[in-house]
Amino acid sequence: MNETATYESRSTGPARREAGSGGSARERLLASANELFYAEGIQTVGIDRIIEHAGVAKGSLYNLFGSKEGLVHAYLESRHDGTTGRLMAAVDRYRVPRRRLLAVFEAQALIFAQPGFRGCAFVAAAAEAPRGGLVERAADDYRAWIRALFTDLAEQAGATDPPELARQLQVIYDGAILSARMDHDPSIATSARAAAEALLDASL
Amino acid sequence: MNETATYESRSTGPARREAGSGGSARERLLASANELFYAEGIQTVGIDRIIEHAGVAKGSLYNLFGSKEGLVHAYLESRHDGTTGRLMAAVDRYRVPRRRLLAVFEAQALIFAQPGFRGCAFVAAAAEAPRGGLVERAADDYRAWIRALFTDLAEQAGATDPPELARQLQVIYDGAILSARMDHDPSIATSARAAAEALLDASL
DNA sequence: GCCCCTTCGGACAGACCTGTCTGGCTAATC
DNA sequence: GATTAGCCAGACAGGTCTGTCCGAAGGGGC
Questions:
Q1: Given an 8 Å threshold on Cβ–Cβ distance, is B143 in contact with A167?
Q2: Mean pLDDT over each residue of chain B, to the nearest integer
Q3: How many domains does chain B have?
Q4: pTM, 2 dp
Q5: For A165, which of A29, B60, B119, B197 is 20 to 30 Å away at the CA?
């Protein structure tokens, strides 16, 4: 859709590095939002539970984020940065293009095995968000980044039709996350990696 | 997980065929729940909106379904029956095993193109439901049915390792639905079909 | 004609939600 | 020492949620 997207890491903003205390109110709120929104859903978790979990006053939340929607936005942004950072780190551990592409699916195995894994935060958020809102835009950004990553890796790996292979790889990527989450089965990552390898071989 | 599951259609219960009127209160409630829950999410849609949309009194809803959770359960059951019925019909249009398997992904193309398509209802419901509840059980049933269908089709198509191919096919099946929903791109079904075909060829 | 059952429309209770506001405390800066 | 800024704790308003209950209307079986 948006072919101008790249998978460069987004700018981290005005470099708010006051975080010397190891836990400012903003950081604690974001960590609590990340934990509770991700585990139970955005609509299900109220403001009160978040500020209680964070040990922060309600006024501080509204000073820092303006509204619940602002907190949701920051939550999704941190999810975006975390996942893209993890994928880029996994890819950059290799230099051979084929290995770099498969590294994405190897990273999935680690992600699925993490304790609180509950699937893709953007999919869950989009399921309970209104159409055309802030959540949908954040999800579009996230998916465009993944798509650009796959397109680039497919091209460097020598695929004859990189955009088409990227579409198929993203289908496998999405399906693996969904299967791992719905079936509580992290081992699906190995099947996904094998499927990706087979598709790569078939598209050279 | 549950290897005793089959993909036979579930019994339709005590055959409540009083539906001669073309729109009993129960049917109108179920239709409204199907429309509103699916379009906007379960937590987002309140009882009042459903009974207003259905033209039914609140007392009737609680007489018929007992609670909102009961209505959600019936909603997911009707989703289960609808989707499994559509897939079985698509598969049974062919006799050659390979064609029968690919028919699943051809059926997806039609489903994605339907007007109100918003992805998998069970995934959306699970994203906002508590762990271990009624919604999770319904989703597990649904996914076990799909898995059994793929395993059976893979076996009849001559795969050397039917359970493993079934896992990979379900990954593609899930990923296609998710991509179609998140990217508003029904054409992903053709990429998914091609990927399934490539995996099938690679597994003979 | 009478009974029984379902349904309707709406009031109501009790809980929870977001967002605002006040008042007191602490710590850094002038 | 005074001032300013940020944070905490909690009350509060206004709205929405699920679920219960009540009186009235309608329609089929005896």
A1: no
A2: 89
A3: 2
A4: 0.88
A5: B119
